[in-house]
Specification:
By secondary structure, the protein is of the alpha/beta class. It is 20% helix and 36% strand. The protein has one domain: Rossmann fold, CATH 3.40.50. It has helices at 15-32, 48-55, 108-118; strands at 9-13, 38-44, 62-74, 78-86, 96-104, 124-132, 145-149, 155-156, 172-175, 184-188. Helix 3 links the parallel strand 5 (96-104) and strand 6. Helix 1 (15-32) crosses helix 2 (48-55). The longest helix is centred in the first third of the chain and has 18 residues, at 15-32. Residues 182-188 have low confidence and may be disordered. The structure holds inosinic acid and magnesium ion.
Length: 189
């Protein structure tokens, strides 16, 4: 049964703006890692569109791996309890690792992941996020690369979802506020 989404999405950053920003990030990352091989760790599901576009613009050698995590809470708020649903295939030991996420919000998911990955002995570990929402940070985390700083709104598109919808939007948008609130359940990536 198909139930059409009731939410309205407003555009925040258009497709062309996103494309140019991803190009800039890739150029910066390529310059910073010149002469090295990068291991990109994408966090699923939210990062897949961003990872796909970003890695195709990198000029350094790159290996790509993914990790699926889910955080328990409502569909729009994280609890900080993170579960690794599918772990990485690649060992991180002595590798230059770049963790790629769709959005840094409270920072709880990222804090958990950084602690977890750091214990695997990478040569270096940096963070690249498509979007940073600093207004809602609960733990101090400074991402090394940020695509866009976004306002305190629920953003969707370019991989980011609202209850699994809108990941395929080619632009970054936000959900128009209304009074319905979120339903309880598992929020996967
Ligand atoms: P955090 O732990 O609060 O930093 O957020 C963890 C995850 O929640 C992010 O990686 C996203 O998958 C999701 N998330 C947080 N804010 C948003 C949003 O505005 N739109 C879509 N997903 C979000
Ligand atoms: Mg995510």
């Amino acid at each position: 049964m198909f139930i059409p989404p009731r939410e309205t999405v407003r555009e925040l950053h258009g497709e062309e703006v996103v494309r140019r920003r991803v190009e800039e990030l890739a150029a910066q990352i390529s310059a910073d890692y010149a002469g090295r091989e990068l291991l990109v760790v994408g966090i699923l599901k939210g990062s897949w569109v961003f990872v796909a576009d970003l890695v195709r613009r990198l000029t350094v050698p790159v290996i790509i791996d993914f990790m699926t995590v889910s955080s328990y809470g409502t569909s729009t708020r994280t609890s900080g309890v993170v579960k690794i649903v599918t772990d990485l295939k690649c060992p991180l030991e002595r590798r230059d690792v770049l963790l790629v996420e769709d959005i840094l919000d409270s920072g709880l998911t990222m804090r958990y992941l950084l602690d977890n990955l750091e214990r695997r002995g990478p040569a270096s570990l940096k963070v690249c996020v498509l979007m940073d929402k600093p207004a809602r940070r609960k733990v101090q985390i400074r991402p090394d690369y940020v695509g866009f700083e976004v306002p305190d709104k629920f953003v969707v598109g370019y991989g980011a979802d609202f209850a699994e919808r809108f990941r395929n939007l080619p632009f970054i948008g936000y959900i128009e506020e209304d009074d319905r609130g979120g339903e309880n359940g598992t929020n996967q990536g």
